[in-house]
Write a structure and sequence with these properties.
alpha/beta; Glycerol-3-phosphate (1)-acyltransferase; 7-stranded mixed sheet; 7 helices; about 20% strand
Length: about 220
């Protein structure tokens, strides 16, 4: 399966199962490289993003999904960057940086996992900030709402209202070998940019004003 075929399948899935509202289309960069950061609600987030963004997205996915008979081939077709969860996967980080160095798009869910039953933002890992400071490319925040309902509504033969909000691209205040507390601060900054694009019930631990939130 090629990426082009995957995009066609994604288009069919999204069109048949959702009523999608796209906000901030003008914020999508004309060309890569850039780092796409988003919340993660459902396995169907990827088809939605494939429909919205015109550029090939290389996204992180847990290596355990590689052997999944359904999602494994799909994620391979999407040229996924496989990552070992629960540890610092330096190989995956190097591959992620190489994606951006080659002038491509890297997609990251900074929380490192799918949202829990509340569907609200959880405290994020520092991986996205680490990559952003090393690569020094634009960061494009995306807020997804409604994709967590697609599966249940599909069983009831109902289409789901999905909102995709794309924020203005931004850079972190500094680049290079940033570590420790600064990296955590920049992680919160990235998450706040995502939170600002979401309805309040999805903002979770990042529900406060910028600079005044837990995390």
């Amino acid at each position: 399966m090629t990426y082009r075929v995957l995009r066609i399948i994604a288009y069919a899935i999204v069109k048949l199962t959702t009523r999608m509202e796209l906000v901030g289309a003008e914020n999508i960069p004309h060309a890569p490289p850039y780092l796409l950061v988003t919340n993660h609600l459902s396995a169907l987030d990827l088809p939605v993003l494939l429909l919205v963004f015109p550029h090939t997205i290389r996204a992180f996915a847990a290596s355990k999904h590689k052997s999944n008979l359904l999602f494994g081939p799909i994620l391979e077709a999407a040229r996924t960057v496989w990552v070992r969860r629960g540890e610092v996967d330096r190989h995956a980080l190097r591959e992620a940086l190489n994606v951006l160095k080659r002038g491509e798009v890297l997609g990251v869910a900074p929380e490192g996992t799918r949202a829990d039953e509340s569907h609200a933002l959880q405290e994020a890992k520092a991986g996205a900030a680490y990559i952003a400071t090393r690569a020094d490319v634009p960061i494009v925040p995306v807020g997804l709402a409604g994709t967590e309902k697609i599966k249940d509504n599909l069983l009831g033969l109902r289409r789901t209202s999905v909102r995709v909000a794309v924020g203005e691209p931004f850079h972190l205040p500094e680049s290079g070998h940033v570590r420790g507390k600064k990296l955590l601060e920049y992680t919160d900054l990235i998450m706040q940019r995502i939170a600002e694009l979401l309805p309040m019930k999805y903002r979770g631990v990042y529900a406060g004003e910028r600079g005044d939130y837990s995390g």
